[in-house]
Design goal:
Length: 446
């Protein structure tokens, strides 16, 4: 094993990453298309027989999974650097065997239901993958499709939806779910008549999907009060689109900069998608400079505790929570974090406590308001006492965002940390090792 004088020493072997921390990360990384927008736009291509071109495509696992799924359905997917061309002229209905192959790999296949119903009148329902951060049901999805006129045929392992036609209607979501909002939009664009979706999610990634659909010929209105109105159209066309940059990755690097007391320029990061994050980052003691081509992040003063409550957009994203908590372990004072989107998104803190953090979990809503988890016995509030020096440990990565957060913690810790199951991070962060190297870390093959 080589020893070096650079900021951190990192070794990789199979699915393990070993990091020697304690030094700042300094330099530049570039981000590309949002992991939570790209695969949904790929699903939208199923709605047309004309060729579609996606640009600013990042190299993350969900893009590969959906590309393979489209190929298995008879579509053509051509990959060029940063670009995808998809042609679904010869699309076939989903075979149960194809669905089985992709079930469990990602949550995106559930979104194929609307487009497949529009094209073939039948859509098998996948069992889903994705990060284990709570139960993550799909009841809103199925109920909304039934309200649009689909019939549910339930059979163990072989449930499916059927509809000769979908019809526009009024749909209300019990909670502004991102996936269920996308489900309704992708189904209602080809339905007959008008669909009015209330209590919809309005995340920037959803707006990007709506922009694509508008290019394809759809008519979709987004009102200020979480109401989205979709006027069904009979035909949709091909498109060319450059996907919005990944605001989750941008925030993750910002947290890495402030936690390691370094300085990182995130090329392509956009202020407009990150305003809530930037406000909290500044309250914490982080500083940033917004430039034409990206945002630079660093520590502006001693970090001090802040209260944090996750929420749907335009609130503080649940996916920003984990990397931000690592920064809070280095802040002076007591921070209170209330997670209101997922009931079980604090599983990762036990390992941080092993590294020296002082984080305690509570079942009560410790935020400024009550959330739907308060009465349901979930450990969904955290109290973080800081600053606490972190030291290296051996840690198993349970989910994507926790994974990147452990990388930050390891980079800030004294000594060596060994992270297992590290390939999970590739679901949302492209070229992780190359980027860490560019920021002063060194990767040594074991
Ligand atoms: N929910 C239901 N029933 C449903 C759907 C959702 O009860 O039918 C609940 C969920 O259990 C959860 C809440 O509603 O408590 C929000 O879930 P949502 O549907 O909004 O999440 P999602 O669409 O499954 C996407 C992102 C997540 C991100 C959330 C919230 C993708 C592929 N995933 O998930 O991203 O945390 O929205 O913004 O877009 C990540 O990138 O690491 C990640 C987990």
């Amino acid at each position: 094993m080589a020893s070096t004088s650079t900021a951190a020493v990192i070794e990789t072997a199979a699915d393990i990453l070993t990091i020697r921390g304690g030094k700042p990360l300094v330099g530049e990384v570039a981000i590309r298309g949002a992991k939570n927008a790209l695969p949904k736009i790929m699903v939208a291509t199923l709605l047309t027989a004309e060729p579609c071109i996606l640009r600013n495509v990042s190299d993350v696992a969900d893009v590969d999974i959906i590309a393979d799924l489209i190929r298995a359905l008879g579509g053509e997917v051509t990959r060029r650097p940063g670009e995808l061309e998809i042609n679904n002229a010869n699309l076939q209905p989903m075979e149960r065997s194809v669905l089985k192959e992709f079930s469990g790999k990602s949550r995106i296949p559930i979104l194929t239901c609307g487009p497949l119903l529009a094209r073939f009148g039948v859509a098998p329902i996948p069992s889903l993958g994705g990060c284990r951060i709570g139960p993550r049901p799909v009841d809103f999805h199925i109920r909304a499709l039934q309200e649009l006129g689909a019939e549910l045929h339930e059979e163990p392992g072989a449930s499916q939806l059927n509809a000769t036609k979908l019809y526009g209607t009024k749909i209300h979501l019990d909670y502004p779910s991102v996936g269920a909002t996308e489900q309704v939009i992708l189904a209602a664009v080809r339905a007959e008549g008008v669909t009015e979706l209330s209590n919809a999610a309005v995340e920037p990634e959803i707006i990007d999907l709506i922009c694509v659909l508008q290019k394809m010929g759809a008519i979709i209105m987004v009102d200020t009060d979480r109401v989205i109105t979709i006027v069904g159209v009979p035909v949709l066309h091909g498109f060319q689109h450059s996907t919005i940059p990944d605001r989750l990755e941008a925030a993750s690097w910002a947290c890495a900069a402030v936690t390691t007391n370094g300085r990182i320029f995130v090329r392509n990061a956009r202020q407009i998608d990150m305003m809530t994050f930037l406000n909290k980052f500044r309250q914490l003691g982080g500083d940033f400079a917004i430039r034409e081509d990206g945002i630079e992040f660093w520590r502006g003063r001693e970090l001090t505790s802040v209260p944090l409550e996750t929420d749907v957009h335009p609130g503080f994203m649940t996916d920003w929570q984990q990397p931000f908590v690592i920064a809070l372990t280095q802040a002076q004072g007591v921070s209170v974090v209330h997670e209101t989107v997922y009931e079980e998104r604090f599983g990762y803190v036990a390992a941080l406590n092993k590294m020296g953090a002082r984080i305690q979990l509570y079942r009560e809503c410790l935020g400024s308001r009550k959330c739907r988890f308060g009465q349901r016995n979930y450990l969904h509030s955290a109290v973080i006492a800081g600053p606490t020096p972190l030291h290296g440990e051996r840690i198993y990565i349970p989910d994507l965002r926790a994974g990147f957060s452990y990388v930050i913690a390891a980079l800030a810790a004294e000594g060596v940390s060994t992270l297992e199951n590290v390939s999970l991070i590739g679901r949302g962060y492209e070229n992780l090792y190359a980027k860490l190297r560019a920021l002063g870390a060194e990767i040594v093959e074991v």
